[in-house]
Write a structure and sequence with these properties.
methyltransferase; eight-stranded mixed beta sheet; 10 helices; S-adenosylmethionine-dependent methyltransferase activity; 276 residues; Rossmann fold; Methyltransferase type 11; SAM-dependent_MTases_sf; transferase; alpha/beta
Length: 276
């Protein structure tokens, strides 16, 4: 399942402009807070990653596609001294946001770079996090780069939107097209642009767990079990109404992940892999 785009250059431009400006970066960071669906998604994903990293004693860690540094800040706060962190993103505005979020003496290295062609040497890292970035890249090429910079025996943690979950199927197949159609009608009748509905095109291409595991194997990475996160049966826009009332996910994040039969309800999933 993917958001339709006309060509690879168009997709690359859609990805590039999304977080090229500081205001857009700030909006992305703000989405991690509050009680909405996006906040729950990020909170659940972070909890799932914490569970995987719990078995990792530390080392050189790369957060590629780091965004504004929310995970970097979280690791500094919860695992102080365990990891020597490098944060990398293709958006200079994102890297500026990371620099503003971490102390100068925290020892975090910052780099602007594309996951498909990273500015690092071979086998530099013990742990590589690729969260929310593979959807915007050529996943096969990106995973070969991830494998290249990971030391043998090292840990790679990948996440992906779940294209077959009820939430994503409805969001991408019904909710977003309906908002675009409504926005087009509002334009015809003269509704001001600031009040029109819509849904921006993102360039997202989401892979199934089976496909992602296959690409991990091909890149020289041995995948483990699939962990689903942000598990929910609700779809947009009903989910917003439900989550205004049910806020237990912050106090009990373990209820938002699944490893068994309920995995298909996760709006995203995680696969950890070992570098062969």
């Amino acid at each position: 399942m993917s958001i339709p785009v006309t060509s690879r250059p168009v997709r690359e431009e859609l990805v590039r402009v999304q977080y090229a400006e500081p205001a857009l970066v700030a909006g992305y960071a703000d989405d991690h807070a509050g009680w909405g669906p996006t906040a729950r998604y990020h909170h659940s994903r972070r909890y799932a990653i914490d569970q995987v990293l719990a078995g990792c004693p530390g080392g050189d860690l790369l957060d590629v596609g780091c965004g504004p540094g929310m995970m970097v800040r979280h690791l500094l706060d919860t695992r102080p001294g365990d990891f020597r962190i490098t944060a990398c993103d293709q958006s200079p505005a994102m890297i500026d946001a990371v620099a503003a979020r971490v102390d100068a003496d925290a020892g975090v290295k910052l780099a602007v770079g594309d996951i498909q062609e990273m500015p690092f040497g071979d086998r530099e890292f013990d742990v590589v996090l690729a969260m929310g970035v593979l959807e915007y890249a050529d996943a096969a090429q990106a995973l070969h780069e991830v494998a290249r910079v990971t030391r043998p025996g090292g840990l790679v943690v990948t996440t992906m939107l779940n294209p077959k979950s009820p939430y994503r199927l409805f969001e991408w197949g019904v909710f977003w097209p309906a908002r675009r159609t409504l926005g087009a009608l509002e334009r015809v009748v003269g509704v001001p642009p600031s009040r029109r509905h819509g849904a921006r095109r993102t360039g997202i291409v989401a892979l199934t767990p089976r496909r992602l595991r296959e690409l991990l194997w091909r890149a020289g990475l041995q995948p483990g079990a699939v962990i689903a996160y942000d598990v929910t049966a609700w779809v947009p826009p009903v989910d917003r109404l439900v989550r205004r009332r049910d806020r237990s996910w912050r106090e009990r994040p373990e209820t938002t992940i699944a490893r068994g039969a309920k995995r298909w309800l996760g709006t995203g999933y995680l696969v950890a892999a070992q570098r062969l």
